Structures are given as C-alpha cells and as structure tokens.
C-alpha cells in the first residue's frame, strides 16, 4: 500500500494545514429491475486508496501544529448474511490492517465528519459535480454550526478537490506503467485474434466476441469502453458501436477496443481488409495514416508540446489529401492554406491524442491555463497518451469515388520517455504485409 500512502501524502501536502478532504467512491447503478451493472469504483478514489468496494469514502485531514495528518476510510461493516449473497466485505478492522488507514463503518460517516470539520479552515471536495454530496454537506455543516455556542465554527471555505487529484494522475509511476503495459499486451493479443478470425460473411459482433474472450481469458476485468467493430461504411462513423452488420468481401473493418486491467485502460485501433487483401485505394490511404502516426511519434519527447503530435500528423494527412485528390488543389490551395483553413477536417475531424490511464480519456489539462494565451502544455517523462490519426471518406461532391466508405484509424498507447515514445501496444501488426499475412494465415 506504499504507493497509495505516498499519493495521499502528496495530496495532503497541497492542502491548507488542518483542512479536510472528502472523496466518495462511485455508487452502484441499477441496470433494470433488480439487476445492477457490474460495479466499477471511482478512479480518483481508487488512485488514493486501492479500495474497490462500493459504499466507501475517504477523508484526509492535513497536519496542523502538533496534529499529524490523518487518512480515514469509511466502508461497509462485515455482514455474514450479505457475504453469502454478494461476496467478501473487508469491514473496518480488516480494511485498516490491509490498506494502512484508519477505518470506520460507513454508517458513522455523518457523525465523524461533523467532528472532523469543527474549526477546519477548508473542506476540499467535488464541487458542482455530485448531487449526492449536496445533502451531505448541509447535514455536516448544520451539525458543526449547532456547536457554535461553544465557539466552534464550520469551514469558511469550500475548495474543489478534483483539479488537485487530476494533475497528480497525469504522470504515471513505474507500477502504473507496468499495469498499462500488460493491459496493452492483452489488448494487442485480442486484436491479433480478431484479425486471424476475420472472414467475409461474418457479423461484426462475432469479432467483438473474439476480443472479449481474449480480454477475460488473460485476466482483464472489463472492456475499457464499448468496443467499436465497424465495417464498410460504418468505419466512417467515429463512435459506431452497434456491431451488427454482416461484413462483405472488399470491406475494411476498423476495430477500436481495449481492455481494463486492475483499474487501468488500454486503447488500440487497427484497420484491416475483411478478405485479407487491401485494395489499391485502401492501401493508399492506409499508408498515409500510418505515415501520419509515425510523424506524430517523432514529435513526442519531453519538452515538446502535447499538441505537437497532432500538428505533425495533420501536416502529413493534409498533404496526402491534396496528393490523392480528396482535396482539390484549385480550391483548397496549398498545404499551408489547407491547415490554416482546416479544410482537412472534412476527412480528419478529431484530435490525434488524449491522456490515458485509469480513465480512457484520462484526467489532466491539455493547455496551461496559467499563461495568457493558454499554450499547449509541455510533455514530461511518465505521461501516457494515445496516438491515433485517421481518415474517413464519405461520399460527396468532388470526392473521388474510389475512396468512398473508406474509414481508417491506427491507434497506439505510448509513454513519454527521454528517448522518445515507448509504445505499449506494438504487439499487434500494423504494416500492410504483416496484417495481410496474419489474416491469410488465420484462414
């Protein structure tokens, strides 16, 4: 539990002396009737505790004077009858021993918060993000104010806890990187399995089943997000996830899927021909996207900016759009014109990267809001981001018909290092020859 203790200590060090921080985990959610969705903890709560049970909360108290800092976990009590139905509960005693915190029953939360908030200079919590918290705050503050005749006062300040924890999560330590590497390896194996299984006439959901099987077979707890298995024209729908079309000979299939392992996400996209052979137009655009990804990789180094990878990819893609005739040089102008006017967004309309971690679109600012022009933030060692250029061609006036319904995206997860990006997901092919070989060998 040393990593979690270190994170709590780092957070407390950023708080005002004597201040209190409160953070609850995610609630259970009903799917329908009396059936619930599979439970998934709150990411920030898990980041600070490693605790995965529902109905739990963390309270931190910053040191002040001769009073040391405190970390207090509130959790469910042991309940043998409920454990028969739902499984083991730690209970406060075991949680205290196992997780290195003070622990109390969650039923004692209100009374303890009234006690802890007395004369505290500030309360750090989620502000304007959690409706459940509003009623709790009223109860706690009313309880403290009821003691005002004794000279006790409620915290005069409410501060947002989220930005503090979000920024802490941006840089991943060695343990986090190791889990994310393993998640990437599992997801890569799933993509290889899907490639080898692909045949004309299959339904998209059959490939989704191959992915999910490989995730669970290798110990991943969940998909990190709903898998996208998009064939034919569906490959031009960025967030398509119906996954119910029958794949045809001559289609491309775009799969965007990754597993979640021990609370950390992976995120891979590959695009390949259903029949095992790229057509000439498909290959032309595929090689263009692959070159754009390499240009983005080359722009990822400590000190370079987050948006630099996107700018590098856009330059390659925009020139390719002019070269292939997707953009008419007579109307779109030069490469500089295409970039300045964002004409490329007709075929490439999303960013090239996002942070990756406990959440697929992980926490942390992309720009430095402390500076007047809010420039793109510099990259530092240990941050993890995706690199996912793409091109999506829908039918339209002036669009060459040979490219219609071709959607291509290539995505990998990388850690920023002093020597360039360390790719966590390179166990799945992306060179044309390697993809074709795997599909045809699978046949």
Automatic annotation (TrEMBL):
Pfam families, per the entry: AMP_N, Peptidase_M24
InterPro entries per UniProt: Aminopep_P_N (IPR007865), Creatin/AminoP/Spt16_N (IPR029149), Creatinase/aminopeptidase-like (IPR036005), Pept_M24 (IPR000994), Peptidase_M24B_aminopep-P_CS (IPR001131), X-Pro_dipept-like (IPR052433)
Necessary cofactors: Mn(2+)
Protein origin, superkingdom: Bacteria
Catalytic class of the enzyme: hydrolase
Keyword Metal-binding recorded: yes
GO cellular component: cytosol
EC number: 3.4.11.9
Catalytic activity: Release of any N-terminal amino acid, including proline, that is linked to proline, even from a dipeptide or tripeptide
GO molecular function: manganese ion binding; metalloaminopeptidase activity
Keyword Transferase: no
Record-annotated Aminopeptidase P N-terminal domain positions: 1-134
GO BP terms: proteolysis
The entry's keywords: Aminopeptidase, Hydrolase, Manganese, Metal-binding, Metalloprotease, Protease
Family according to the record: Belongs to the peptidase M24B family.
PANTHER family tied to this protein: XAA-PRO AMINOPEPTIDASE 3
UniProt name for this protein: Xaa-Pro aminopeptidase
Source species: Pseudoduganella flava
Native organism taxonomy: Bacteria, Pseudomonadati, Pseudomonadota, Betaproteobacteria, Burkholderiales
């Amino acid at each position: 539990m040393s990593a979690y203790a270190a994170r709590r200590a780092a957070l407390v060090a950023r708080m005002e002396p004597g201040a209190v921080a409160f953070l609850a985990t995610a609630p259970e959610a009903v799917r329908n009737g009396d059936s619930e969705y599979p439970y998934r903890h709150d990411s920030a709560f898990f980041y600070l505790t490693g605790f995965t049970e529902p109905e739990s909360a963390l309270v931190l108290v910053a040191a002040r004077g001769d009073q040391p800092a405190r970390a207090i976990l509130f959790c469910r009590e042991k309940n043998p009858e409920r454990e028969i139905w739902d499984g083991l509960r730690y209970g406060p005693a075991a949680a205290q021993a196992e997780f290195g915190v003070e622990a109390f029953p969650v039923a004692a939360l209100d009374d303890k918060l009234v006690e802890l908030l007395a004369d505290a200079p500030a309360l750090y919590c989620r502000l304007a993000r959690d409706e459940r918290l509003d009623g709790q705050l009223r109860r706690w503050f009313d309880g403290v104010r009821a003691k005002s005749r004794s000279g006790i006062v409620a915290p005069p300040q409410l501060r947002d806890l989220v930005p503090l924890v979000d920024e802490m999560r941006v840089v991943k330590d060695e343990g986090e990187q190791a889990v994310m590497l393993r998640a990437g390896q599992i997801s890569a194996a799933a993509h290889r399995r899907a490639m080898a299984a692909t045949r004309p006439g299959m339904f998209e959901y059959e490939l989704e089943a191959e992915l999910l099987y490989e995730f669970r077979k290798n110990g991943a707890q969940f998909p990190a997000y709903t898998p996208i298995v998009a064939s034919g024209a569906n490959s031009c729908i960025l967030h398509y996830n119906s996954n119910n079309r029958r794949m045809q000979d001559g289609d491309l299939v775009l799969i965007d899927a990754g597993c979640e392992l021990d609370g950390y996400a992976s995120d891979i996209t590959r695009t390949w021909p259903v029949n095992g052979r790229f057509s000439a137009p498909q290959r032309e655009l595929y090689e263009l996207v692959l070159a754009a990804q390499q240009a983005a990789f080359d722009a990822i180094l400590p000190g370079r900016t987050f948006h630099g990878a996107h700018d590098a990819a856009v330059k390659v893609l925009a020139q390719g759009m002019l070269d292939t005739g997707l953009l008419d040089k007579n109307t779109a102008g030069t490469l500089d014109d295409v970039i300045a006017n964002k004409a490329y967004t007709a075929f490439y309309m999303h960013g090239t990267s996002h942070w990756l971690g406990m959440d697929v679109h992980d926490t942390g600012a992309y720009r430095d809001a402390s500076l007047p022009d809010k420039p793109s933030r510099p990259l530092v060692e240990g941050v993890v981001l995706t690199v996912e250029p793409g091109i999506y061609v829908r039918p339209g006036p002036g669009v060459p018909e040979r490219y219609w319904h071709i959607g291509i995206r290539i995505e990998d997860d990388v850690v920023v290092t002093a020597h360039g990006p360390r790719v966590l997901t390179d166990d799945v092919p992306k060179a044309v020859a390697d993809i074709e070989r795997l599909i045809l060998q699978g046949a």
